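Protocol step 4 of 6: structure prediction from sequence.
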Amino acid sequence: MFHARQAQRRPGTAHRFPVLRLSDIVATVVYVEIGPAWNRNRGGAARKAAVDAARGFDSDILLIANGISSNAKDSAAVAALQVHGGTSAQVLATGPDEEAALQALLPVLQAR
């Protein structure tokens, strides 16, 4: 049986891990309906186009659908979402170019 042990630290020493407050995290979230192009060829071409579009940006981008979130820059993770035309999804982007990333990604997700 595995027993977790709390890490020991010397009295008076601080934790070495930075702590982020929720107020420090800023992201843009957009709600989208996946377009019918995702129904053709099991969405392979549409998925590749979406991943390629996302990879062109420095921002972190999440695609959230069917109760699952995935890194929009990871083809296998996007495939695991099993989205198809008509699926409601959210796209969350945070980073230096989040607005440009969303403007590039949304037409690909909504493709007819």
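Step 5 (inspection) to follow. Residues 17 and 36 are 45 Å apart (CA to CA).
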